[in-house]
């Protein structure tokens, strides 16, 4: 168990290293009857492709995906969908100098500690390139959720200390940071240029929304929807914090302030506020699901850093290679992917919550 | 799958409702050879017992635990350890008025939506009383971790807007909020009294530390140590946010600031700072593991609130019964429990990371 | 992981030792809305109770079950159903002489090898008494399957070398062997008396039928219905062989003989024969599911046997205590239980096989 | 969940259809530090390759495997090992006539019932070609087990009604049936020729041995070693029965006859007989593990058969294409694979059975 398999019913199994031959994912448990093709998946992959955003790695990869199984005449058959992307631009020579040295903020030291061996080329398995597989699987989840009337989208809430204060959904794909606030994006660009000039990097916060989720999704104790979403999002390499709805600010509120009052709108249950972020008692409550994730700044910076080598001797390291001075914009679609995969999986799990649902399937 | 089973190797299965006959947990996969008795478990249970802290529910429960299986002559045998606590003071009459009404901030509406039926007495399965089972299982994990030289402890970092600024470990159990800062605890008491007087409630932040965890624990992609800890802690009823090390503040830092430099101390790897919170690439890095959780204010408040009933008609509700105006202090040991269970489980999973470890077991 | 948890969606977690305080099971994932009470469960438990059959142990246990959670007003709520049976007649003194000696055919030696400690009283966790928990969980699965129009029943196909050749379902509960053939049961009684007189024991074969299972249940590669049923039934203590439909005899047939021709009966698919035992490609084919299990003779016999002790010294053992000279009749309901639990679980898993089914639940 | 993922710690995820672009497997949880290369895997694949045996399909596939990830400088790194085999000789035109008709003894009808769609080309996912992925994963398990001093091998016990009565291990790879008895193999060849001439097919029995397994492997209730092995082997397409040690014949024995007496040989525990097939109470007992599987005759036969089509109308079918008149010899290595994968997985799971083992890893 290296922990590369995820899910209960909609299960994904990812594989591949940054400078290996290829990366991919096997999706087991995708319902049959869903239209899937390589273009649908490519659309999501293109949103995290190196080069998709101005402030990204210079590595040149088309990240062209191929479907190898599980789809017949453009329709999922219920059997495992295997997706593959071959690496094209592996410049392993760039990474020779980190073979025996542990980069600060990276997984070099912990990988070596765990396994006693590591593929150091470009970070190997711990490279951000691993998220390619998540994104590809996420595109399949997206196609399924679309059939159920559910839409998931994310955007950058902040870059460094620059926060988006307005929300224009059309703006999100119009700036190099995926921010819904043009003015904030412009400020972020200034900060980014300054940061890059000083051989440094930035982090940020991504907010993800799920619209259209019916009430009752999520299991009641350990597999709560918020708990599963937290794991999903926290498992993305650079994430250091996750919050739902009011999140950390809820800790400072009074109950009377934080409680969302229920109300009836056209005979349907609704809430006057959404501090819960769409989740109560670990189950969706029918309102918008809101999750935020804090991404640390890219640990690869080209200024000299203190560190140690494999012999536990102190050394100075200067990281070369092609790195993203900020990975947040490319992580937007990755965050969506993890939310979609988790949400779909829990929706499939939830189908048998009531015997009347079971009868609906088996007794018409 | 109601999601009441948790873990990969050290698996726990919890059950019970607030006003049912009893609550309990079955621990499957506890290594054989560990000394366990009822007193060890009772110690942890007593820390979350109603009445353990000044500002808690008035429900009177001794929460006496019995070991029903899996322990022989005070030693675990490797078979499932079943623990049970009988309810004594169920006053179900207190809750009659919420049978058909959904309390804001509670799981009433979502439970009803999911299952079409709910045990409304005292919150049923969604009551905070469910954490009793987690705590009992956590005590067993604690006994195992102790054998491995690992200690896990938590404390209250903030109550409402009052934050602990100093750290005195001895102080933690000396004040009714489990804060490591006496002065902050006194301020919190003032705030609490004022809040209770206005029929309101408070939330807060708990910080949990794991000391002595060797490097390399945690799996590399989805089952990262931080991802699993996030799920574990977020699955506790009132938690709305989780962060590791520098957490959300890392999003505002530069890479040069956030990266922890490695250094060598007495020939051993160490770090100059610990923004990573002891986790790099999803694996423990040998330094202290630090996780924080934001708890929302108790949703049960006795002032009138707007809500709806089962017929989706608007109604006003006044919640009676015995509630905690703040649950944070009682949640300290619950947080420890979830961290310990998760950490131990991942340590057991990690044992087979290298073939040389497998040989160590099977070929001496 | 001691392997006491079973299932994907309908998950059971069993616990308890032969001479401990109690045994029980937690059922997580039972759909809400099913009528369950203690009587329904007791009915199945009574069929494996010591004393239910003439040729059984003399241990005196009423095996009265209590429901501790998950059922409200006689209806399952979707939360874990915890069941408990307290032991009454533990005569641990009977077993003192096996504390340091390994009984042939028993799990004493392997338990000791695995865990380095064992509860030797009455076989501890490896006692047949463990099947009580399976049976109780099976009764809940039975109630669910009944709602879906599915019936599962088993009977004794052979005792020692005496085989049932006729099938009268009403006869099954009329003789002490649960055979559907009165004449065979009479022969078995003669054989049993003779065997008991010579301080020996018998085994036998149980056949189990599932009626009404729709086509398509079972997953397509590793979690085939037949594969899962095999595991389920082989996990019952004394089982040494499992077969589906024609089973081992299929290995000697020609394809033309073994293939079941499809036919149409009233516009519905049917088969002219049922060598497949109702399973093709790991999925139910709509015909009767047929599984057979071979039970070895009870290893506890009172005549002297050669063995070794904990110091690996040869010794002779005479097993005292209260044993079943044949456990097959009591295992009939246990076999049903394992088949029902597995079948129900795979039916719940199968609900999401098609996106149109997912839509049926979420989009009406 | 299409059930294409298998294992607890050593987890495999298989994918691919008979006439798709490729087939493969991802192995997650292989311990780091094991020497693996494409030749090692190819050796096992060559033993099930079309054309490996005289009486096999005429499909021409080299089945050349590529390692895409998880291996660095010939050593496993602990990350997922992805293996791929591209299909070369897909003649899909051969299968056009079965698009709308259900072949008797095949999974056509059940696949259609479950998913409402199927890739009918060459049987799609239910083709025996799926076992290629199992075999490739099995080769990796073999390399791991070799490091632990464990050898697993299988052979054909019977073909149709011809049974091997002698055992010469060197003979196994010398005849087209993998029988350890040359004379029986010659008789089987006569039977095979006769059967093929009458456009019919044969089944048989495979026996598999595991040597060198220490006592205590296997979990004690549901995940018994024999239960898991049964599932593993029963999940191979054509298997209809599984037995351990004396198996079905144990049902006809007396306890005194079936019990294996323990004895001491050079101060070590041993058994005078091995009716248990090396497993007691679900755990390995230190003697040879013996499992047998009954394979039904190949359902694809070229003589006319009665069946129905998608409209549930009766029809006659003549199956064309390239089929194995007996698949047993090619299934020998597949059986080994499933046994090895299962055994290794349970050995990894078993590592944490005792706290002293856990200490051995973490505290030296």
Oligomer: homotetramer
Sketch the topology of chain A as an H/E string, one letter per element.
Answer: EEEHEEEEHHEEHEHEHEEEEEEEHH
Strand percentage of chain A lies at 15-25%
Terminus-to-terminus distance of chain A: 40 Å
Structural class call of chain A reads: alpha+beta
- Principal-axes geometry of chain A comes out as globular
CATH homologous superfamily designation of chain A:
Chorismate synthase AroC
What is the CATH architecture term of chain A?
4-Layer Sandwich
Question: Largest chain interface and its two residue counts?
Answer: A-B, 114 and 114 residues
* CATH domain fold name of chain A: Chorismate synthase, AroC fold
Total strand segments of chain A: 18
CATH uppermost class of chain A: Alpha Beta
| Major pleated sheet of chain A | 5 strands, antiparallel
Helix content of chain A: 25-40%
Treating each run of at least 4 consecutive H or I residues as one helix, how many helices of chain A? 8
Overall pLDDT of chain A, averaged?
Answer: 95
Can you walk through the features of this model?
- 4 copies of one chain form a homotetramer.
- Chain A is α+β, with helices and mostly antiparallel strands.
- The first copy, chain A, has one domain: 4-Layer Sandwich (Chorismate synthase, AroC fold).
- Chain A is 27% helix and 22% strand.
- Chain A is built from 8 helices and 18 strands.
- In chain A, the strands form 6 sheets. Chain A has a 5-stranded antiparallel sheet, with helices on one face. Chain A has a 5-stranded antiparallel sheet with strand order 9-8-10-16-11. In chain A, strands 5-6 form a two-stranded antiparallel sheet.
- In chain A, helix 1 packs across helix 7.
- The model of chain A has no long low-confidence stretch (mean pLDDT 95).
- Chains A and B meet through strand 1, helix 2, helix 5, strand 11 and helix 6 of A and strand 1, helix 2, helix 5, strand 11 and helix 6 of B.
């Amino acid at each position: 168990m290296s922990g590369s398999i995820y899910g209960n019913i909609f299960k994904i199994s990812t594989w591949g290293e940054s400078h290996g031959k290829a990366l991919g994912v096997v999706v087991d448990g995708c319902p049959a009857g869903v239209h899937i093709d390589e273009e649908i998946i490519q659309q999501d992959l293109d949103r995290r492709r190196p080069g998709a955003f101005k402030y990204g790695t210079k590595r040149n990869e088309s990240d062209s995906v191929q479907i190898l199984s599980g789809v017949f005449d453009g329709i999922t058959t219920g059997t495992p969908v295997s997706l593959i992307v071959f690496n094209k631009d592996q410049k392993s020579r760039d990474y020779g100098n980190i073979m025996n040295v542990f980069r600060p903020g990276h997984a070099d030291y912990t990988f070596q500690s765990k396994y006693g061996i590591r593929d150091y080329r470009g970070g190997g398995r711990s490279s951000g390139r691993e998220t390619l597989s998540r994104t590809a699987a996420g595109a399949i989840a997206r196609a399924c959720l679309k059939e159920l009337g559910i839409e998931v989208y994310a955007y950058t809430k902040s870059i460094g200390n620059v926060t988006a204060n307005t929300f224009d959904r059309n703006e999100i794909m119009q700036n190099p940071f995926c921010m819904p606030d043009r003015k904030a994006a412009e400020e972020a660009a200034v900060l980014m240029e300054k940061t890059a000039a000083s051989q440094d990097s930035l982090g940020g916060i991504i907010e993800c929304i799920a619209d259209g989720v019916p009430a009752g999704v999520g299991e009641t104790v350990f597999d709560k929807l918020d708990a599963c979403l937290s794991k999903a999002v926290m498992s993305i390499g650079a994430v250091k914090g996750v919050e739902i709805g009011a999140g950390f600010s809820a800790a400072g509120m009074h109950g009377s302030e934080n409680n969302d009052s229920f109300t009836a709108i056209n005979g349907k249950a609704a809430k006057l506020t959404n501090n819960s972020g769409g989740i109560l008692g670990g189950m969706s409550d029918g309102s918008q699901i809101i999750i935020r994730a804090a991404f640390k700044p890219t640990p690869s910076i080209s200024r000299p850093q203190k560190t140690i080598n494999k012999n536990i001797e102190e050394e100075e390291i200067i990281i070369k290679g092609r790195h993203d001075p900020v990975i947040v914009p490319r992580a937007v679609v990755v965050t969506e992917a993890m939310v979609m995969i988790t949400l779909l999986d829990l929706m499939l799990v939830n189908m048998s919550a009531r015997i009347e649902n079971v009868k609906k399937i088996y007794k018409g």
